[in-house]
Fold:
Amino acid sequence: MSTLRDVARLAGVSKMTVSRVVNKSGSVKADTRARVESAIAQLDFVPSDAGRVLSQRRSPTRLSLPHGVLTEEVGNSNDRPTVAGGLALSPIAGRSDLFEVSSHLSGDTARTMLRIVRAAQPISRVDLARRLEVNRSTVSEIVTPLIASGVLREAAPEAAGVHRRGRPAIGLTLCGDRSFFIGVNIGVRRTQVGAATTDGVMLAEELFDTPSDSNDALRQIRSALGRLRASLPERSLVSIGVSVPGPTDATRGKLLFAPHLSWRDVPVADALLENEPGLNGVPVIVENDATAAAIYEARRRLRARTPKTQNNFILVRAGTGIGVGLVLGGEVYRGSGTDRGLLGEFGHMTILAGGDPCACGNRGCWEVYASAAGAASIYSGAEAFASGETPPRFIEIVARAREGELLAQTTLSRVGQNLGIGISNVITGLGVSRVVISGRIVHGWMFIRKSLEDAVAQTMAGRLSNWSIEAGQPTGAGLGGAVEVAIEHYLTELVRSTRAAA
Structure:
């Protein structure tokens, strides 16, 4: 992945000059700009979503954030940068509901701060400074205007009746009493649609079997969106995150291919906004389910105060199929350029040439042998079933293994071995040795773990890297991941819009 430094080095200029070209700010000579743009093209450089650093500015900029709620602002001029939902950036006008953003703050730091507050709220300024590894005065400089604007609130977090010595602790929390987000998890078998608060607490949820036809599925989702919005009239919808079982396009608006549903080129975002005037201006972000689950896991680690050394990890999500999400430095990596939506489709990596057919059209794919659905195939292939008898589902195989059935235990052990073979390939290919397993496959972890670890240990990746594999959550990352996609978009746009207003 190319960096700002790489572009500067190739173009023979400073990083500041590259930043000016990328952000279209400041004065840059035409020939210098041409060299930088050529270097960007050669290296396929793509700026991070939040931007490396907020643009330097002589005069401060302020954000209009009434009570932390994103509402449509009447008379928004076309030249005023906004984020979805009506979050408007305005020059200083002496209004109390505007806050000033310091010119030297890093976009990544600002977004990380908002993430930490959201994950650990209520959190004191001292704890926030410790986790950000900055001075407390820097934290105060960031949060004070956010409190004044209504984005954050600060209050004593202790429960009633709890008494402590000394000055009472004060905790920061995000204000989200009048806003909400919607997550849509389109699964191969079932679809979930849920409304959640800024801190991820579910307000309402609907569940239905996923129709075989994509148009029918999208119609049902639109209906569910309408019911959820109607049930929360006192709140404003900020954004919608959609988790899908397949790769998406680079703009995260379209599902390219869902092998197990036989869906191709489904314009999910456009379809959900079609004939819905009430959703005008509300962004819809479509994300691969494994990547969404990786975002969910990364935020879960923030809540758990996981050490920074564990912020690089691979998430392997195994259920009907297998998908992989990559997190580097706490940030999900999606690839680069026009192919960024294809990252993580390791479930369709061939591990057995000429093997069993896969829903994708290939043979011998990893997910055929190492997913929850693959376990059912292995089990049913080892035992003859009477005519009309349905082979057991994965959860039933796990239950039989717990009851002592040898066939069920052997099946899960084989799945673990196959899972380990693929994981060692992923570790070698990506160079990240910490792995988290997520999805339905985790239900059988006690029978899968040993053969999985033995398989990894036999490989070069197992012998040369300090690898670790841990079980994540079997459920929750589907809808939870979709909600996180929506909220993460809001935080990213907040920081990006601040930079654009510079």
The longest strand covers residues 236-244.
